[in-house]
Amino acid sequence: MCGILGVISHSPVNQLLYDGLQVLQHRGQDAAGIATLDGHTFHLHKDNGLVRDVFRTRNMRSLLGNAGIAHVRYPTAGSAVDHNEAQPFYVNSPFGVVLGHNGNLTNADELKQQLFAEDLRHVNTNSDSEVLLNVLAHELQTKSKQYRLDAKTIFAAVSGVHRRCRGAYAVVAMIAGYGLLAFRDIHGIRPLVIGVNETALGTEYLVASESVALDTLGFKFLRDIGPGEAVFVDFNGKLHSQQCSDKASLNPCIFEYVYLARPDSVIDGVSVYETRLYMGEYLAEKLKRTWSEIDIDVVIPIPDSSRPSALQLANHLNLPFREGFVKNRYIGRTFIMPGQAMRKKSVRQKLNAIGMEFKGKNVLLVDDSIVRGTTSREIVQMARDAGARKVYFASAAPPVRFPNVYGIDMPSPQELIATGRNDEEICREIGADRIIYQDLADLKAAVSKANPAISNFDASCFDGHYITGDITADYLNRIEALRSNGKANQTLAVSQLALDLDDDE
Fold this sequence. Notes:
This protein has 17 helices and 21 strands. The protein has helices at residues 14-23, 51-54, 57-62, 108-117, 128-143, 151-164, 211-217, 255-260, 272-290, 307-317, 340-350, 374-385, 423-430, 440-450, 460-463, 473-489, 494-497, and strands at 2-8, 31-38, 41-48, 67-73, 89-91, 97-105, 167-175, 179-184, 193-199, 202-208, 220-224, 229-234, 239-243, 266-267, 270-271, 298-301, 325-327, 351-353, 362-367, 390-395, 434-437. A 7-stranded antiparallel beta sheet has the order 3-2-4-1-10-9-11, with helices on one face. The two termini are 13 Å apart.
C-alpha cells in the first residue's frame, strides 16, 4: 500500500506536494519522495522515513518547478530498508520520466527478464515500480515517431503497459517537456482520483490516491480515474483521457474500505465512512441472529478505524457506546519490533484502558479486522486486567485467511490467525469469551449499499479468489520463500511489516 500524488500548477508545487503527502501518510510510513519539474529539469529528493523526517528546508528549496509527483511507501516488493527503493523512480531514455506507483506487479520477475533480454533495459533495484517505469519508457519509445510524443502516442504506450503488466497498479508519472500522466490497472484494484482548481492564471489539476488529498489541498473532486483508463494533462493545461484497454472492469480492493483508506475519503463513488457505518449495521444484524442470549453491557471500539462500525453497531442494538482505550500516537508501529515480547510491550505502550469502562462489565470489543491476532490477544487481556467480567470480540471484516498480492503485504498464511482455524479456535487463541466475524456477503453489501453501481471486488484476502487470474500455488510459494529468506537475513522488513492491521495505525 502506497500513496501517490501528481500535480500541474501555475505556482511552485513543492509545499503542495509535501502537504499532500502528510494527508496520505497513513498509506505509507517507510519512505517518502518528491520529484518536481522545472522546465526540462527534474529535481528529486527521497529517503526512508516519515514525510516530516525526510524533507528539511534545504530539500524543499531545491524542489523547484510548477509540476511534480510525490509518493509515500509501504514496501510490497523489494527491500524495506534500501533507501534506493524509495520512490519516485527516474529514467532519462528516450524521455525523462519520473514515476510513482501504488500496487504490486504479479509478473515483475518475468518483466525484468524481458526488459534485460529484449528491451535492453537495466533495472537497478528489486522494486516492481522500477520495472513498471522501464516498461512504460520502452512503450513510449516504441510508440513514438522521431522521439516525439502527443496524447495519442502516450495512450498507445499505456495500452502497451496494460498488455504486458499484470497485477495492481495506480500510477502517476511526469514526462519532461510533455506533462502529467496517470493511469490505473484494468481491474481498478487500487484507487486513483483527479481534481481541478480554477485560478486566475488558469486551470490546475491534481491526481491522488484518495479524495481527501483533493479536499485538503483546495482542489474540487472531478472524478475517479477508471480501470484501464489513462489521463494526460499537458503543460498547456489541457486534460486528455482515454480508455486504454478493452478488458477493463471495476474490482476495487475491498480492504480499502475496511481499513486502508481514511474515513473522510470517497473511493469509486463510495464514502469510506458511510461504508464503515453500514458494516456496523450488518454486524449488528448478525449479532441479533446468532447472539441473542448474550448479555452485552457496553460496546467499545479499538481505536481508530473501527470507531464508525462500533458506534453504528451500538446504536443498532440500543447498547451504550464508550471509549475504553486511549491511544498514544507517539509510539512506533509494533510490527517493526523484534520478537513477541517486544511487540506485546509496545501494544501496552500504545493503548491504555480506562478502567471504569470495563470494571464488572460484559464488554464487546469491536475492531476493523483481525490479522495475526497478536494485538487482539493483548487487548483482550488488557480488558480483563481492567476488570471486565466477560470480553467478547467482534470483527467488522471477515476472517483474513489468504495473502494479498495486489499491494498489501499481509503476513504469510502460517501467521494469519484465521488460517486453518474455526471461530471457536480463534476465540481461544485471543482469549475472548466469544468472537463474531462479519460475513463476506454482508461486507460486500455494505460497500454496494453506499454505491449500488459497484458489485465486484477484490476480496482475495478473505476468499482466496485472485481476480487477475494469474496467481498460482507456485507464485504464492515463491512469495512465502521470499518472506522466509527475508526473516533469516533481516533484509526484508516486509516479512515483519505485513501491515499488522490489527495494530490499527
